[in-house]
Design brief:
Arc Repressor Mutant, subunit A; mainly alpha; 13 helices; 281 residues
């Protein structure tokens, strides 16, 4: 399930995201004053999404968590579309924004990436909120601001930085999605990892007996990495170890990204220091 942000009323959505005074939906008719806040509703939605996924979020279910009917929530939030936007932006408030680039942009950027990685694993439903259209809330902008504050320390030009921002965010989200999918696979399919691999290993040896000859590099990497012990044939009991391995894989890829950014910055500095070629040379 992919969720696209900004499907609700533009002015109401932005007013709620930025908590503009009077942004709530106006109450009509007689009755007591509202006894809830938008934040309480949004927090309940986040808790529901953390527990059961974004597909489980509905005004009715969120209402149950705050002791109200689903219809009562419309007094505060116009629809589910705005609610998910609010949930996504509010959850991003957990991310630290005080990374210290003065201590070196590499360390600060690595910390930013690890914070975002941990956030995605705590709130896997946020990975279903498409990056194609930003929510445009204050916390989403604070997240971007903190990243840019670090990246501008590299000295790279704005054109390069703009591309790097997307690369870094997509790297974290993609890596986190793999871990999330792995966690959910057994429950979603009814088949444990151990049973899944055992069935395919037996069939593979029979149906593709020349696999090693056809794909020698794949086999070599698996053998050298010890995949026969802890890789594709790992049991569900080894899942915590495999998640640690996923973190190590994340760190290895991050190191390559950091090296690439450093190399790009060095190249740009060298180009800036080179004198212009004489005319006609």
């Amino acid at each position: 399930m992919v969720v696209f942000a900004g499907q609700g009323d533009v002015r109401r959505s932005l007013a709620l995201l930025w908590r503009t005074p009077g942004a709530g939906v106006a109450r009509t008719g007689p009755g007591p004053k509202p006894g809830l806040t938008v934040d309480e509703i949004v927090d309940a939605g986040i808790a529901l999404a953390d527990a059961s996924g974004v597909s489980a979020v509905s005004m009715r279910e969120v209402g149950k968590r705050v002791g109200r009917t689903g219809m009562a929530l419309y007094t505060y939030v116009p629809s589910k579309n705005e609610l998910i936007d609010l949930m996504y932006d509010r959850s991003l408030a957990e991310l630290p924004v005080d990374h210290r680039p003065e201590e070196g942009w590499r360390a600060a950027l690595a910390a930013w990436m690890h914070d975002y990685w941990a956030f995605c694993l705590r709130h896997p439903w946020t990975l279903q909120v498409s990056q194609a259209r930003p929510v445009l809330g204050p916390n989403e902008n604070a997240m971007l601001e903190s990243l840019l504050r670090v990246l501008y320390r590299t000295g790279l030009g704005v054109g390069t930085l703009r591309s790097i921002v997307g690369t870094l965010i997509n790297y974290v989200r993609g890596a986190a999605q793999t871990v999330v999918d792995s966690r959910q696979a057994a429950a979603a399919t009814g088949v444990s990892d151990e049973d899944w691999w055992t069935a395919r290993s037996a069939a593979f040896e029979e149906l593709v007996p020349d696999f090693a000859e056809r794909f020698p590099m794949v086999v070599r990497m698996a053998r050298e990495a010890g995949a026969h012990e802890t890789g594709p044939h790992a049991t569900d009991q080894e899942r915590p170890f495999l998640e640690q391995e996923a973190t190590e894989t994340f760190d290895a890829g991050l190191a390559v990204l950091l090296d690439g950014i450093e190399a790009a910055a060095r190249k740009e500095r060298q180009q800036e220091q080179q004198p212009d070629s004489p005319a006609g040379s």
